[in-house]
Amino acid sequence: MDHFYLSLLLLFVSFITLSLFFITYKHIAHFTGANLPPGKAGLPFVGETLEFLSSGWKGHPEKFIFDRITRYSSEVFKTSLLAEPTAILCGAAGNKFLFSNENKLVTAWWPESVNKVFPSSNLTSNKEEAKKMRKMLPNFMKPEALQRYIGIMDHIAQRHFAMGWEGKDEITVFPLAKRYTFWLACRLFMSVEDPDHVAKFADPFNVLASGMFSVPIDLPGTPLNRAKHASNFIRKELRVIIKQRKIDLTEGKASATQDILSHMLLATDEDGKHMNELDIADKILGLLIGGHDTASAACTFIVKYLAELPEVYDGVYNEQMEIAKSKAPGELLNWDDIQKMKYSWNVACEVMRLAPPLQGAFREALNDFIFNGFSIPKGWKLYWSAHSTHRNAEYFPEPEKFDPSRFDWEGACAIHRFKWEKLLTDEKIVVDPMPMPAKGLPVRLLPHKA
After folding, report:
1. How far apart are CA 423 and CA 425, in angstroms?
2. Cα angle for residues 400, 401, 406 (degrees, 5° grid)
3. What is the pTM assigned to this prediction?
4. Residues 124-141, mean pLDDT to the nearest whole number
5. To 5 degrees, how large is the angle CA 333–CA 337–CA 340?
6. In the 8-state DSSP scheme, what is residue 43?
7. Considering only CA atoms, which of 72, 96, 71, 62 is closest in space to residue 400?
């Protein structure tokens, strides 16, 4: 009997050893080939993913990129991220190559966790999805349409400050920024403006956003599993809104141009077919996520830098007050007012240079190709990094310095109501996957005297 158990143990150990050998061999095989970029594969499955993520968790996402640029003396290097062989393209040339070859040599790629949250994304190719969105978005995003949204944005902003900022001694900026941008996105994309209706989406939406880029383990209680349940709840609520909008369009109670939901319901493909409700719900959900996380991160970091740099705050405040003085009581902002915000815009650009809401994005190679003298095999993932240009002295002299004048060639509702002070002077910044203050950026409000 002892020999039997010993044999079973040896068989089990042999199986595990052979499995690990096979996994390791397969992992290494991905990184063998002629003329691949310099770099290393890291451990099987894990690769260099933990180091890549931990640099963001520690508040220095650029470190992973610049350490390797220095180590390999190259602006393209290989690594393994999210269990995928990956080439990271750095600098302006790499960005231009990827963006100019979209759906030619490369296509958008998302981690498996995203595909589980958005099941309809598995039914059509990224190229087909991109064509659909390019057909619908121009009407919604063209300059004359954007000009119409300015008054809406100002109206929502004023309601937001009245509800969340006025009468408070201290606030936490990041949660309030998320609430504002989500409210604004709901209004612009779906004409949903009632705060109670918006709040119904808010909690499940935050669960979805936090679990969408998590480890792809779909077990009860895991972030991915909670994100899937949240997405199903939101999708169900969106379909109720979609059905009602169909009725309103038929009865003339809704306009064909009032928001992107109407655009999607009325748009047809080459065969004259309309999009189905699930597809529309997924696309609205994707737009809400894209518009919510990036915008709330940008708003939060603008508040952060204005609190840290009094001279910059004063410049923005003076510009905003000049515009405010030209407005009649209750008059909303318009396009001409926005054109006058030159310094404010430069400050916003400099904030997004130093704290880009989107750190980078993945692509997948559709064919073998050569970049910068190195071979990139078909099926490899590619990643572009905002920091590889934003914090590069070749493109921005003294890249760590906050200097809004960098954007002088380019041509704020809170700032004329309040000044503010950071309550945590050394608050850590975490990138996961968007940049955010670890404690949400608590500030003390100092209302301006009337």
Report:
1. 6
2. 115
3. 0.82
4. 62
5. 155
6. B
7. 62
